[in-house]
Specification:
By secondary structure, the chain is an alpha+beta fold. 50% of the residues lie in helices and 17% in strands.
Length: 186
């Protein structure tokens, strides 16, 4: 029975689970994003986030503690040189899980796990801000005035000028018809 056992064993013995999490954490630190199952990503988050917090203090002891978990010199070096510098101001939440759907072979839930501060696409959109267009429901309609050879122009007009709108549409249609007839004659 698994009463009051708080973490997911992932169907593995403890040594296999620890080795797998160490390899996945090293890959996440080196490559900044990995594709894995959602269950493994949730367990990896609890494994790697304390290590990133530990890397904020660059001392010999913290490097040895992190190496004890990762067992990869390159990953430890990358963590303390690049990752710790970028996450220095962040109080936590260093990873992001983006769900992808299910895997074709066994229908497992798949996701991408990435370090938050290393996704340049999302950083650009969050700093740019979003401009909102104002919309009004006050009785103005948009009409399109088009002439042949020119791009369509969008104008706003009061709702009472529907007759004028119909005239403009008829004029544009007659201009198109006359231009087509000229091309046929040539």
């Amino acid at each position: 029975m698994r009463h009051r056992k708080s973490f997911n064993h992932l169907g593995r013995k403890s040594a296999h689970r620890k080795a797998m999490l160490a390899n996945m954490a090293a890959s996440l630190i080196l490559h900044k994003r990995i594709k894995t199952t959602t269950a493994k990503a949730k367990e990896l988050r609890t494994y790697v986030e304390p290590l990133i917090t530990k890397s904020k203090e660059d001392s010999t002891n913290s490097r040895r503690v992190v190496f004890g978990y990762l067992q990869d010199k390159d990953a430890v070096t990358e963590l303390f040189r690049e990752v710790a510098v970028k996450v220095a101001e962040r109080p936590g939440g260093y990873t992001r899980i983006i769900k992808l759907g299910t895997r074709l072979g066994d229908n497992a839930d798949m996701c991408i796990m990435e370090l938050v501060d290393f996704n340049e696409n999302l950083l650009k959109t969050s700093t740019a801000g979003k401009a909102k267009a104002k919309s009004s429901r006050r009785g103005t309609k948009k009409k399109v005035e088009a002439t042949v050879g020119e791009p369509a122009k969008v104008k706003t007009a009061p709702a009472a000028t529907a007759i004028e709108d119909a005239k403009i549409v008829e004029d544009s249609k007659s201009a198109e018809v006359s231009e087509i007839e000229e091309k046929k004659e040539e």
